[in-house]
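for the writeup, i need someone to sanity check this before i put it in the appendix. the sequnce is what the collaborator sent (i think, or maybe the updated version? ugh). structure was predicted straight from it, no edits. if anything looks off just tell me and ill rerun, i have time this weekend
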Amino acid sequence: MHALSRIPHHAWTQGYFDDGTKADYEVAETVHTLERCTDSFRLVAKRTKRRNQDDLFEGNYHYGIIATNIPYEEKDAQAIMHFHNQRGEFEKMIGELKHHYGLDHLPCGQFSANSLYFTIGVLAFTLVQLLKRHDFGPAWKKKSVRSLRY
């Protein structure tokens, strides 16, 4: 919080979603180093205005921080936010494959049989993703197969 408090008010910029529409958060960044370390890294901060009344102890904003070593020339603060969110979405897909499609373990010790089992699971996942996007509309894009079943 001390590093975030040193970010000037004018350094906070409007955040945007992947499609270019305005988001309900602001983005800024600072450079930080640990106490006994000579290497520094970027802190990309996202702040969202609290919806409830102001908190006496925590302030007017809720903060989220991403620590990264990706250079600014490669990705600016907003691009880091999008990159981080995409990684989170991919982790969610992996979890869905494991837990909802039965791919958390393979059925036997034969490579060919396990390969076929895994291929069928990924094919089922892909078909459900196509069904959700093309037949059910954008509201279903991020829902799991469990929601579809219910």
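Residues 77-100 form the longest helix (24 residues). The longest strand covers residues 22-33.
thx in advance!!
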